[in-house]
Write a structure and sequence with these properties.
It is a single chain. The protein has 5 helices and 4 strands. It has one domain: Winged helix-like DNA-binding domain superfamily/Winged helix DNA-binding domain (Arc Repressor Mutant, subunit A), CATH 1.10.10.10. A hairpin with a 2-residue loop joins strand 1 and strand 2. The protein is an alpha+beta fold and 148 residues long. A two-stranded antiparallel ribbon has the order 1-2. The protein has a two-stranded antiparallel ribbon with strand order 3-4.
Length: 148
């Protein structure tokens, strides 16, 4: 089995967005849901990097001022942001407990991620794609240096 590595690099926001697009693909996030999740994950990671621990990081992340900043940056109303938070809660990305939100730990990319892809037979042809037939696993890795 041949393994290939793909590196994702860019700003913290770009890498986080790419990670979230892959990780939450089955949830079919809208553009605004993805943008909100990306902004929350980037800000949360910055708080943690600065030494802020839970529950304070979530308290800061979902404060009235930060919510207003997020709504303004997404060019949406506060009511629309609340609807997005409701959708993200239903999808398990956010949690709402005791009148406060928190972000699911899986939303925050670790310093290194590995994805394994398996090439399976195409239902119409009964065989694997020509290019993918040599390798049935491919991994994608993001190194710690790429998070910045």
């Amino acid at each position: 089995m041949e393994q290939k590595k793909f590196y994702v690099s860019g700003t913290r926001k770009e890498v986080t967005e790419a990670y979230l697009m892959v990780f939450f693909a089955p949830l079919r996030l809208t553009d605004k849901q993805l943008a909100a999740t990306t902004a929350l994950a980037v800000q949360y990671a910055q708080y943690v990097e600065d030494g802020v621990k839970e529950p304070y990081a979530s308290t800061l992340l979902f404060s009235t001022d930060k919510r207003k900043e997020l709504a303004d940056s997404l060019q949406i109303s506060s009511a629309n942001l609340n609807n997005i938070f409701g959708s993200l809660t239903k999808k398990g990305i956010l949690a709402f407990d005791n009148k406060s939100y928190s972000i699911h730990p899986n939303v925050i990319p670790n310093s290194s991620l590995m994805f394994n892809f398996k090439v399976v037979a195409d239902a119409s042809t009964g065989r694997a794609d020509q290019e993918g037939s040599e390798s049935d696993e491919t991994s994608s890795e993001q190194s710690e240096g790429d998070n910045n």
